[in-house]
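Note to self: the last two entries modelled the partners one at a time, which told us nothing about the interface. This time every component goes in together.
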Amino acid sequence: MERVPVLKIGDILLVSIQVDMSDQTAVQLQEDLAERIVATGCHGVIIDITALDIVDSFVGRMLSTIASISKVLDAETVVVGMRPAVAITLVELGLSLNGIRTALNVERGMELIAATRDDDYGYDDLDEPGDQSTDTR
Amino acid sequence: MERVPVLKIGDILLVSIQVDMSDQTAVQLQEDLAERIVATGCHGVIIDITALDIVDSFVGRMLSTIASISKVLDAETVVVGMRPAVAITLVELGLSLNGIRTALNVERGMELIAATRDDDYGYDDLDEPGDQSTDTR
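The predicted structure of the combined assembly is written out below.
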């Protein structure tokens, strides 16, 4: 069975999908990713699909599932490297990749994840003064 | 024909080899990498072989060729993610992976490349005073 490697780069896990995904490979990848997110405490998952000529409903569903699992484990998922033809086919097939965020390439995906985390921290910062004013009232 | 994607992350190009390499795929990868090094001005190439169960003489030669091409284009090549079994087989087969540097994982590979570049700069710094003293003599 082929196994898709999960690479850790800083605070991000990177997966480059190059092989045709079977049921088994997809399930294995989901398990591996979930385990690595927990083990490393990473807050971002980037899935590179540069090598894919076609994203069918099976792969689309797999990406959505990975995004949902990561979300539960407090990690953002960004799909990067989608070819123009793949995007066109996705729309023509009516596949909307629910809950999946995309970026042009790995670097922009990293920026997107960093920006999202910053926003989250920003939100926390905004919350704190509120909490304090509640304490001092 | 399968095509192995080349991902740019900061100053480094990352290649994750997951498919069986044919002659064509190998040549294509070498060309793609050389083009990307020139286009991006990256100084490091990391080749991840986590997914490979076997590194035979063909793949070993391909890695050496990539390292040599990168060297000429002023980029360091580091092979990461080698499995213990692969290392054992390589030694048993008498394949020495000439001119190839290795690291445990992508992050250590990045550190190795960064350290190498720093050393180079350090060397330049040492050179400059010498040049100046030559000028002022």
